[in-house]
Amino acid sequence: MSCFVYNDMTRLLIILILITIPLLSHGQLLQAVAGVSATRAAGFSGDESISGNILAGYTLGLTGDIPLKQGSCCAIRTELFLNRWGSRFATGTAGRTNATRSLGLSYIQSPVLFVDRIGLSLTKSLLVGAGPYAAWRINAPSQLFKVDRVNNHAYGALYPDDGLKEDYYRRLDYGFSFQCSLEIYNRVNLCLRYDCGLRNILEQGSGTVLYNRALTLSLGYYLNMGRFLSRRFPLAKSTVNK
User: Fold this and answer.
1) Tens digits of residue pLDDT in 43-67
2) Which of 2.30.130.40, 2.60.40.3760, 2.40.160.20, 3.40.50.2300 would CATH assign to domain 8-240?
């Protein structure tokens, strides 16, 4: 099991984003999200493309919408997710029966998307969105430290016992997120999201470049924060409903 290693910068980043999303959402369109992911690391070594095998991951988080104007179907969506990304790689050399090991990387991800809602019926709407994301790796990675290409396949080498595991993978990742979701009764949201990393996740890769790729199916539920706040803080009811 991966061991989470938090430092002061990670804690500060998490706190700032957790505070920002509910404030920006104005307590109206705050959504809780949970889902499963099919992730893989893909890239190239020299002139040849390589990729690992699919690894099952997960996503947990919150989203908050900021309408561009009152009554508009377009909004800016700020999101906060805890994701498990990575891939599976064969270990050893070509021509042998190799075991596979997981490269599991956990990230705090914060996308900012432009979204548009398209009404399908009185009870359903289609939401499409796209935008950039930044992600911060918060765990010590699994046993792989190096990924090389052998006959267009990616092979992983095990860590040496040198205590330098943190030096083999970059902390910061960034890229673009694309999503399409079906909203039902303005309450439940079934979402398909694709995250495409643009930064090499390997700090030391012997000339190999790998990027995060993740396809996520998630279920979201919009929280009526305006009603919750008005019940808990009656004196602020007029302010919440504005």
Assistant:
1) 887 777 777 889 999 999 989 888 8
2) 2.40.160.20
